[in-house]
Design a protein that fits this description.
- With 189 residues, this protein is mostly helical.
- Helices cover 68% and strands 0% of the residues.
- Helix 5 packs across helix 8.
């Protein structure tokens, strides 16, 4: 029977996991999301690849942790971005800007979370709960804003429409003007 980890061991383990995730993100940013390999990750961390399996059971497990991290950071970013909105129009604009800003600042997480570039990667139930939690928050925001709008759309239709607009504008911006900041160029909000 294994002994429970001490707080020091837990902090050390959490620190190593954070280093692994950050190094994996660096690889994904430079080489592409699907190009992540445990061998390259271990090389950059100056360790042997089998040692990574003490922290992640497989490369897909690592992708899953990155997916969960992506949606967690995205949720925090959107909440902070829209917190001072004074009208539904401003909240809509800030949502679009926040989505696009997140994609430009975190392209590797954006791709993993919103484009699924890794063949065979299926997020775990736990990670899907985080992403569905974000979707549920979108529906709640739409329900709160719907009475202020002059529309016959349902709250789900409004949220889905906003999501489609955010993703579409962001994809077009990244494809056509990736070096321009949000709000500049033909496709900025």
């Amino acid at each position: 029977m294994t002994k429970p980890m001490t707080p020091y061991q837990l902090n050390k383990r959490d620190g190593m996991i954070a280093r692994i995730l950050e190094t994996a993100r660096e690889i994904m940013r430079t080489e592409g999301v699907a190009a992540l390999s445990m061998q390259e990750l271990a090389r950059r961390m100056d360790m042997r690849a089998p040692s990574l399996y003490n922290y992640f059971s497989s490369k897909m497990d690592l992708y899953d942790a990155l997916f969960r991290l992506g949606f967690t950071l995205f949720g925090e970013h959107i909440a902070k971005t829209i917190q001072d909105a004074h009208s539904w129009q401003e909240e809509l604009r800030l949502n679009i800007e926040g989505y696009m800003t997140f994609a430009l600042k975190n392209p590797e997480l954006y791709q993993l979370c919103f484009e699924r570039p890794v063949p065979g990667f299926v997020p775990s139930t736990e990670s899907l709960q985080v992403s569905f939690g974000m979707l549920h928050q979108s529906y709640e925001r739409a329900a709160r804003l719907l009475p202020m709008m002059d529309t016959d759309l349902t709250e789900q239709q409004v949220a889905d429409l906003v999501i489609a607009i955010m993703h579409g504008l962001t994809a077009l911006h990244i494809a056509n003007e990736p070096n321009l900041p949000v709000g500049e160029g033909a496709l900025g909000p």
